[in-house]
Amino acid sequence: EELFSLNHDDGSKRFSRDADGVPDSKRKKDSSEAHGSFIVGQINILDGKRSLNVNIFLKQFRLSHQEIVQLLREGHCEKFGAERLRSLLKLLPSQEEIDA
What we know:
Layout: H1 8-14, H2 31-34, H3 48-59, H4 65-74, H5 82-91, H6 95-99
Protein name: FH2 domain-containing protein
Pfam families: FH2
Domain FH2: 1-100
Protein backbone atom coordinates (compact mmCIF):
# COMPACT_ATOMS: atom_id res chain seq x y z
CA GLU A 1 0.00 0.00 0.00
CA GLU A 2 2.80 2.47 0.84
CA LEU A 3 4.71 1.57 -2.32
CA PHE A 4 2.00 3.06 -4.52
CA SER A 5 1.16 6.13 -2.46
CA LEU A 6 2.15 9.56 -3.75
CA ASN A 7 4.25 11.82 -1.65
CA HIS A 8 2.43 15.12 -2.19
CA ASP A 9 5.46 17.22 -1.29
CA ASP A 10 7.68 15.52 -3.85
CA GLY A 11 5.31 14.36 -6.58
CA SER A 12 2.88 17.23 -6.90
CA LYS A 13 5.21 19.38 -8.99
CA ARG A 14 6.38 16.44 -11.05
CA PHE A 15 2.86 15.75 -12.29
CA SER A 16 1.46 19.29 -12.36
CA ARG A 17 -0.04 20.73 -15.52
CA ASP A 18 -0.51 24.27 -16.69
CA ALA A 19 -3.84 25.76 -17.75
CA ASP A 20 -3.38 24.49 -21.31
CA GLY A 21 -2.94 20.90 -20.09
CA VAL A 22 0.75 20.55 -20.96
CA PRO A 23 2.78 18.93 -18.18
CA ASP A 24 5.32 21.29 -16.64
CA SER A 25 8.05 18.71 -17.12
CA LYS A 26 7.45 18.75 -20.91
CA ARG A 27 7.22 22.52 -21.27
CA LYS A 28 10.26 24.15 -22.86
CA LYS A 29 11.76 27.04 -20.97
CA ASP A 30 11.74 30.43 -22.62
CA SER A 31 15.24 31.39 -23.77
CA SER A 32 15.23 34.44 -21.50
CA GLU A 33 14.44 32.21 -18.52
CA ALA A 34 17.07 29.67 -19.49
CA HIS A 35 19.85 32.27 -19.71
CA GLY A 36 18.95 34.33 -16.66
CA SER A 37 17.90 37.93 -16.92
CA PHE A 38 16.91 39.47 -20.23
CA ILE A 39 17.83 43.03 -21.12
CA VAL A 40 14.97 44.77 -22.87
CA GLY A 41 15.89 47.06 -25.72
CA GLN A 42 19.48 45.87 -26.14
CA ILE A 43 20.81 46.31 -29.68
CA ASN A 44 23.75 44.24 -30.87
CA ILE A 45 25.94 46.00 -33.40
CA LEU A 46 28.51 43.22 -33.59
CA ASP A 47 27.84 39.58 -34.30
CA GLY A 48 28.32 37.18 -31.40
CA LYS A 49 31.76 35.91 -32.36
CA ARG A 50 33.27 39.35 -32.90
CA SER A 51 31.69 40.66 -29.71
CA LEU A 52 33.25 37.81 -27.75
CA ASN A 53 36.66 38.46 -29.34
CA VAL A 54 36.48 42.18 -28.54
CA ASN A 55 35.53 41.47 -24.93
CA ILE A 56 38.37 38.98 -24.51
CA PHE A 57 40.80 41.46 -26.05
CA LEU A 58 39.72 44.31 -23.78
CA LYS A 59 39.82 42.19 -20.60
CA GLN A 60 43.58 41.72 -20.91
CA PHE A 61 44.19 45.41 -20.14
CA ARG A 62 42.27 45.40 -16.86
CA LEU A 63 41.10 48.94 -17.53
CA SER A 64 37.67 50.38 -18.16
CA HIS A 65 36.59 50.86 -21.76
CA GLN A 66 36.67 54.62 -21.28
CA GLU A 67 40.27 54.48 -20.02
CA ILE A 68 41.34 52.38 -23.01
CA VAL A 69 39.74 54.82 -25.46
CA GLN A 70 41.31 57.78 -23.68
CA LEU A 71 44.80 56.22 -23.76
CA LEU A 72 44.46 55.42 -27.48
CA ARG A 73 43.23 58.93 -28.32
CA GLU A 74 46.09 60.52 -26.38
CA GLY A 75 48.64 58.27 -28.11
CA HIS A 76 49.91 56.47 -25.00
CA CYS A 77 50.81 53.30 -26.88
CA GLU A 78 53.48 52.18 -24.37
CA LYS A 79 50.66 50.80 -22.20
CA PHE A 80 49.55 48.49 -25.02
CA GLY A 81 52.61 47.48 -27.02
CA ALA A 82 52.95 46.92 -30.76
CA GLU A 83 51.66 43.35 -30.79
CA ARG A 84 48.46 44.22 -28.94
CA LEU A 85 47.85 47.17 -31.25
CA ARG A 86 48.20 44.82 -34.26
CA SER A 87 45.65 42.53 -32.64
CA LEU A 88 43.35 45.51 -32.20
CA LEU A 89 43.62 46.29 -35.93
CA LYS A 90 42.39 42.77 -36.71
CA LEU A 91 39.28 43.34 -34.57
CA LEU A 92 38.37 46.68 -36.14
CA PRO A 93 35.64 46.61 -38.80
CA SER A 94 36.67 46.68 -42.45
CA GLN A 95 35.76 49.61 -44.69
CA GLU A 96 33.01 47.46 -46.29
CA GLU A 97 31.49 46.79 -42.88
CA ILE A 98 31.60 50.49 -42.01
CA ASP A 99 29.89 51.44 -45.28
CA ALA A 100 27.10 48.87 -44.82
